[in-house]
Amino acid sequence: MELIQIFELKGAVTEMFLKDKLQTLKMKEGENITKHIHKFLYLLQQLIIARTLVQGDKAILSLMKSMPTSYRLFISSFWQ
């Protein structure tokens, strides 16, 4: 296997890992929202560094999906 192919494979694995972390990120009830948003933004930054684009609307939906049920009213009012 050539060095370039190994590098590309490593990049693909990193991208998959980061996307999975972003999709499974969950804020626990009572957790500090600022800390949660920082974790979320860090993952987005890492994806940008890995040269992976995350569309703005998908990023926002991922963030809202990561919020606990106590934020449902806030989330639903955000879209109205």
Outline the fold blueprint.
Layout: H1 3-24, H2 33-49, H3 56-65, H4 72-78
Helix pairs in contact: 1-2
Descriptive notes:
Helix content is 70%, strand content 0%. The protein starts with a helix and ends with a helix. The chain has one domain (3-78). With 80 residues, it is an all-alpha fold. The chain has four helices and no strands. The model has no long low-confidence stretch (mean pLDDT 81). It has helices at 3-24, 33-49, 56-65, 72-78.
Question: Descriptors for this entry?
Answer:
single chain; 80 residues; mainly alpha; 70% helix; elongated
Question: What's a concise summary of this model?
Answer:
The protein has 80 residues and is mainly alpha-helical. It has one domain. It is built from 4 helices and no strands.
- Overall pLDDT score: 81
Hey, roughly how much beta strand do the residues contain?
A: under 5%
Count of helices? 4
Report the structural category.
Answer: mainly alpha
Instruction: Please summarize the sheet with the most strands.
Output: none
